[in-house]
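Lecture 7 notes. Example A: sequence first, then its structure tokens.
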Amino acid sequence: MPAFRVGADRAGARRHLDDGAPVGPGLPPQHQKRRLDALHRRRARDEVLAARSDQRVELQQAGGRLAVQDRQPRHASRVQARRDAADGQGRALYDGGLAAVGHRARRVISLDGKTGELIWAHSYREGNRAAIAPRQLSGRGVSYWTDGKGDERILYVTTGYRLIELNAKNGAMVPTFGENGVVDLKKGAVFGKGQPIDLETGEIGLHATPTVIKDVVIVGSSFKEGMTVVTHNNTKGLVRAFDVKTGKLLWTFNTIPRPGELGNDTWEGDSWAANGNTGIWNQITVDEDLGLVYLPVETPTSDYYGGHRPGNNLFAESLVCLDLKTGQRKWHYQFVHHPLWNFDMSSAPILADITVGGRAIKAVAVPSKQAWLYVFDRVTGQPVWPIEERPVPQTDVPGEKTSPTQPHPPDKLRYARNVFNVPDDLVDFTPELRAAAIERTKQYRWATTPFNPPMLGDVKGLLGAITVGTATNWPGGGFDPETHILYAPAGNTPGVRSLVATPPKFSDIRYITGVAGRPIVEVWGPGDCCAADSGFKTRADLPATPGARPPGAPAAPPPPAEEGGGGLNIQGIPIVKPPYGMLAAIDLDRGEVLFQVPHGDTPDNIRNNPALKGLNIPKTGQAGTSGVGLVVTKTLVVMGDPQITTTPEHPRGAMLRAYDKKTGQQVGAVLMPAIQSGTPMTYMVDGKQYLMVAVSGGNYSGEYIAYSLPN
């Protein structure tokens, strides 16, 4: 049972002391060691869900709950807090006995790490500016800074895009930072050729934590998703560094290069001036010793059509390395030229010191949506294993011009399905399902490449182009610095991309996601997908100001697979063979996959499907695994389920699972009341270890649950 539970609505944390946010100078050695472990999302402690490599941890029922051996994690205390949301994308921050978490409305609370007792709480009211902001999710956490002499501070970004600094001991705003503890991040954001956005209605935000390193705090930018954006001339992405003590701006890096800046010529026809987005919505990684910053850059407007932005469009979908002191570019690598597949960099870059062919390499590794692991020398930017430019299929969408080639890492670094082979990859539980799957593929254009370009879909012809789904999404993978093995969650099902002509007053983009002959599906609400952030009831209500929007309206159902919403299925069963979700392990010294194991129980809709009645279906893993975070310990990889299931082995719920990190064999599991929605973290208080994870989903309000073992 849990040690304690804390209500947490859409709480989030990822870049913090136990998850890679470097802390300030003057720290004792144990803090520096913890920071280095955090850079890899790896912890050395193993008291919780302990296991030896030569011993299987047996699960047994105890008191109505699953226990690890005969030592059941116990419930020590519970702290109630407001729980008005169901998507807690959280990971806590821990230092000095405190666990601080961020909530959906970016409220921050400080807790006693042992009992869960509330110490202080903070909220910054922003009114309409927050109500109309993009990315109205949790900030996914808070960051920490200290001078090592007693000055301790918490930093986070509000829904309305303000950088706030708090006294870590009492939650008070730090008056010497910015203007009474606040830096207005909308100041300096622009669209077009440099026009300032409106400070209330201009579209820009961030649902990631600031990156704190030495006396510098680095902040990215994000926008609503690009499937049905209002205008391609949206706010432009940027990255800025500030003095962590004063809030003074230190440098700015433009992800859409201006005239005279490197990469501007990759926006042909001066299209740089008429396009936006290209932000950094994910976590930013820093190598403190090298003084280098690694930026995972997203897609420009829009995700699947780029006729209004001819060229390769640097620095979209690129890993960009900057100098920490100056913000000057050191090197970059573009993963996708002229992005059209929403293959934005969804995983934070991982620092990995490895040995290849007897040569020590300071590397940076990036799991990806397209199921390749990209590995570079983090000093020079050279790929550790050659990446080839190969010809790819070309578009037939009017006005679009695709790149003739795309980068292809070696096949040995493919850790999930990223090509679609017919009929070999199709579901084969029964001959009837296989035959139906083959027939279904005739409605689509398919190719054995992740770069099958989007096409115009029509109910009278082909519905869309089949391509890779999402292998690894936020929050990414983890690395073991002792074994040099990287672990990544991986989705393993395909997706479909289809375009349709844009209806009047809907958007100034020529084509949007959809299928001719079907109604346009708009998705509203405060989420972070499918233009879900827009609050207009109809496109006719759109104002002329880029990014300006009224408060959000109710959410609509997700669109069909052909319109960007989910994967293909036959009678409710994915069109491809399982596994549908996996844990993958990649040896970075050898550059090859060690194992791929299904993650999660077979979903209820498959286990109970009438078409499979009487069949013994092996463990399939779960779709949605692409967005499950993990933590690596001395012997284990710990990650939770992305779906709720009911099985003969456990009541309705989701499992927090522990795998032997050498073999991938599951060695333990603990029942959770809802799916894991944030990355696990672990900390020690008074010699006792706790493992904390955020859970939420459906009608279940977000919570942080801390697990421990009995004394």
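Example B, a different protein, same format:
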Amino acid sequence: MKPKQLFHKAFAGAVLLASCCLWSCNSDPEPVIAGSEAKTYYKQIALGVEFGTGSGVVHKWETNLKIFVTGEPADYLLLELDKIIEEINALSGSGTKLERVSDEADANFEIFFGSGNDYAAIEPNAASYVAANWGLTWIYWNTSSVIYQGSMYVDIYRATDMSAQKHLLREELTQSLGLLNDSYDYANSIFTRPGLRPPSMQTSTGK
């Protein structure tokens, strides 16, 4: 395995572990799984996709995520976004970083807060999924499985609870890093939250 590939696998695994108990945005993250169990869970999350096509390999960014925020973000969601960015950047060390940009032309990733229909106008490929999903991630990767562009949304009209909105923001942004599959193996994982959303709600991906 090449050093760059090893780094991306280690980074994604670290994000996975740190995300496993981040449902409570007021709690300090504590890994809840380790060893072979963590590796199995990592493969389940990182090697699959909910919609679209997957090749059984890890999809990764090799450039920084430059995030442009649009729609109707509440102040508490912008604060939560800054917190998530800080946490992920701390995990990434000298690798891929996340940053917010004020000019859409500088962005390679867009976060939209609003309705599913309005998000579908921004990301037409996701149009058939928004009716059943309160949050979506849609990313694009090349033939080398390198992610180069993407977007996500949080439906602030259907997910009206503040905690639910924060959870969706954290989950979808984390999955946009290449951890594309949902899982119901751990009730306190960021990748699922029983009772938060309808069973049909998934994270979508494309290329």
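Note on Example B: The chain is about 35% helix and 15% strand. The chain has a mean pLDDT of 74.
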